[in-house]
Structure formats: structure tokens, C-alpha cells
């Protein structure tokens, strides 16, 4: 990617003082790469012109870089221009005529929708209060298992797959974890979202572990594994963002959780579970999450509430409900690379003050 821009030398971080929502600005290096890519990577890399040949080189460099940082084979990669479609492709592409589909109660709404439309047998796996699947042995042999590597609301990382039969095909949802958590030793497909490493929206990476087990589930007239309709500039920017991505500090999350735990009437969700370093949820008793979000926004604090699957209408979190927590008063906190201890202190103070006012 150095041929595109000197992006990896850009070390500055966008400060996000009042932003504890899931979205964050593009990494400066990715933004620089995106602007350059619109000038240099506009041609169709499948054609034979000089511009297309240059675009093909940039595409191949980006794919090699992404494969290295995600620890996958470059020939396993399919680039998707619609991340939400990736859930269907990565799961349905593994189905055979009579496949049983197994998924967890805390999987995303898109995956639960696949379960509702699946014509064969479906198994829902319950989770405990720690957000961990209780019994993988319920997954029958020769089925397809949707495995959410880490939850986007609680940050909880799922337990190992020791009890899963070798004949089970595993579709890994790594859209929240990105490069932070390695893929399990055995997987069939894996889906990543560029947003998880502060890349641009509108781009996903689907990896196919063994193509003999995968069949493109949408109508086709050629032997393809994905639509192939994605923006090359977005791919180039995503590659640069991944190259520059640095994991958030787990210590900052621990400090934030400890500070929230001192607010009267606040309950931390699954505080002891293995988790991503930047995401956690709390439940504030006696007030709705929507009122908290609106009041905090008026103070310059952006934060999320409700299900991560339905952010627009603040639907109650099915994740918290499955774990046995109250869903009223739910706040989802995301820490970013630019978040400081002072920012966290300001947020905790504001949440405590607003909650007391609204009760």
C-alpha cells in the first residue's frame, strides 16, 4: 500500500473527546489513502488498460496486506460492498439441502432472520449471564453453526469450541472483533467489517476456508463466490486503516468499568467475562436509555443505547434479555483510540448526574 500513499507513516490519532458511540472518524492515514485512491484506483482492475493494470496492482497489494493482518490466506478472500449481506452469504453458502442451522440467542438480528427463514431444522443455543454459550454439544453433526466471535454490545468473547463435532461447518462472525481476536483453529467462513478497525463503512471481508464446502447462495450464471461489486477506493482505504490499526488498551476499559460501578444504581453487564478491550454495556436503574442518550447528547456526550441491530428506533437489546439483564436503562459504551481517562471521568460524572436528575 506504500505505492498508493505514504499512509503508514501517519501516526496522528483523531481525538474523540465526547464520542463513546460505536462510530468513529476514519484513521488519518486511511482518509489520505481514500482521497488518493479516488485519483489512482478508479479504473476497473479486470480490464486491460494501463489504468486498469495499475488498479489491479493496488487491489492485489491491499488484499495481501489484509490477509497478513487478519491471518488468513489471500486466496480465501471475497470482498463485499454490502457488509450486512455478508452474514447471509457466509452462512447460506455452507447450507446443503437438509442442513441444521445452529445459532446463539445473542447473535445479530440478521442471523436470527436467517434462522427464521431456514427451511430445515434450527437450534438456538442459550447463553448464561456471562454471555457465554452454555452447551455447544447441542449442535448436531453435519450442521452449520453461526459463531459470534465477540459480541458488539457487551464485548464478551465467546468460549472455545471444544465440544463442537468435527463435521460441523462454522461461520464465524468477526464483524465486531476485527483483528483483535484470532479466528478459532477450525472455521469454514469468517466475516469481517472494515469499521471494526476504523476503516470506511460499506466494505466487508469474507474469508472462505474450504471452497469445496461453499456454494454461492444467490442466483448466478458463472462460478462465483460473491457479487464482486465493491468500491476499490474503499478497499484501499480499509487496507491502510488495518495496517495502521492499534488495539485499544484493556486497562482503559477496566478503569472505565470500575468508575461506572461506583455510580449508584448502575449495573455492569458481564464484568468478569473475557471481552474486547473497547466495548461494554451498563444498565442504569430508574431511567430509560433513550432519555439518557438524549440528555447526554445535549451535553456533548455521544453514546449508544438499545440493540446494536436496531439503533435507529432504540429497540430493547435482545442480547441483554438473553443474558437475564434488564433492558431499560441500557447504555452501550465504546472506547476509541483517542479516548483518555479524563474523557471517561467526564462521561461517568455526566451519567451519574443525568441519572439522578431523570429519576
Q: How would you explain this protein's 3D organization?
A:
The chain has 359 residues and is of the alpha/beta class. Helices cover 31% and strands 13% of the residues. It has nine helices and ten strands. It has helices at 28-40, 50-70, 83-92, 109-117, 232-244, 250-261, 289-298, 318-323, 341-358, and strands spanning 77-80, 101-104, 122-125, 144-148, 169-173, 189-193, 204-208, 266-268, 279-284, 330-334. It has a seven-stranded mixed β-sheet with strand order 1-7-6-5-4-2-3, with helices on one face. A three-stranded antiparallel β-sheet has the order 8-9-10. Helix 1 packs antiparallel against helix 5 (232-244), helix 2 (50-70) runs parallel beside helix 5 and helix 6 (250-261) packs parallel to helix 9. It is globular and about 65 Å long.
Short synopsis of the structure:
31% of the residues lie in helices and 13% in strands. The protein is α/β, with parallel strands linked by helices and 359 residues long.
Amino acid at each position: 500500500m506504500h505505492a498508493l500513499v505514504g499512509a503508514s507513516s501517519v501516526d496522528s490519532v483523531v481525538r474523540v473527546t465526547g464520542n463513546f458511540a460505536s462510530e468513529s472518524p476514519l484513521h488519518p492515514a486511511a482518509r489520505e489513502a481514500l482521497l488518493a485512491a479516488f485519483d489512482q484506483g478508479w479504473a476497473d482492475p479486470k480490464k486491460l488498460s494501463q489504468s486498469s493494470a495499475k488498479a489491479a496492482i493496488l487491489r492485489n497489494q491491499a488484499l495481501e496486506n489484509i490477509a497478513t493482518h487478519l491471518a488468513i490466506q489471500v486466496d480465501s478472500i471475497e470482498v463485499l460492498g454490502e457488509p450486512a449481506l455478508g452474514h447471509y452469504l457466509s452462512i447460506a453458502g455452507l447450507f446443503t439441502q437438509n442442513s441444521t442451522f445452529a445459532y446463539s440467542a445473542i447473535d445479530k438480528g440478521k442471523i436470527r432472520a436467517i434462522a427464521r427463514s431456514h427451511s430445515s431444522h434450527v437450534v438456538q443455543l442459550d447463553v448464561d449471564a456471562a454471555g457465554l454459550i452454555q452447551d455447544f454439544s447441542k449442535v448436531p453433526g453435519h450442521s452449520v453453526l453461526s459463531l459470534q466471535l465477540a459480541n458488539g454490545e457487551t464485548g464478551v468473547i465467546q468460549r472455545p469450541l471444544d465440544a463442537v463435532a468435527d463435521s460441523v461447518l462454522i461461520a464465524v462472525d468477526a464483524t465486531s472483533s476485527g483483528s483483535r481476536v484470532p479466528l478459532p483453529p477450525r472455521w469454514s467462513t469468517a466475516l469481517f467489517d472494515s469499521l471494526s478497525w476504523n476503516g470506511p463503512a460499506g466494505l466487508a471481508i469474507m474469508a472462505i476456508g474450504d471452497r469445496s464446502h461453499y456454494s454461492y447462495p444467490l442466483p448466478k450464471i458463472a462460478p462465483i463466490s460473491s457479487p464482486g461489486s465493491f468500491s476499490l477506493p474503499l478497499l484501499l482505504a480499509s487496507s491502510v486503516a488495518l495496517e495502521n490499526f492499534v488495539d485499544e488498551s484493556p486497562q482503559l476499559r477496566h478503569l472505565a468499568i470500575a468508575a461506572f460501578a461506583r455510580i449508584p444504581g448502575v449495573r455492569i453487564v458481564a464484568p468478569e467475562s473475557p471481552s474486547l478491550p473497547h466495548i461494554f454495556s451498563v444498565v442504569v436503574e430508574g431511567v430509560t436509555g433513550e432519555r439518557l442518550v438524549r440528555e447526554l447528547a445535549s451535553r456533548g456526550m455521544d453514546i449508544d443505547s438499545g440493540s446494536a441491530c436496531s439503533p435507529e428506533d432504540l429497540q430493547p437489546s435482545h442480547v441483554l434479555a438473553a443474558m437475564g439483564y434488564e433492558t431499560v436503562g441500557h447504555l452501550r459504551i465504546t472506547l476509541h483510540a483517542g479516548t483518555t481517562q479524563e474523557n471517561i471521568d467526564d462521561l461517568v460524572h455526566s451519567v451519574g448526574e443525568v441519572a439522578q436528575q431523570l429519576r
